[in-house]
Amino acid sequence: MPKYSTLDVPSSAMTESADVLRNAWRNGEKQFIICYENETPVGSSRFKLTFFR
Question: Is the pTM of this model over 0.90?
Fold first, then answer.
């Protein structure tokens, strides 16, 4: 069982499909990075870059 699934407020990432991420990336809504270990995804972070002047 993933360790974040037992939190009082579980992460929505536990139930998101790859399609949700793919569509957010294609629409320019979010960027993300995936960490691989021996070609197996072991972590990720999703973010939105905002620039201020």
Answer: no
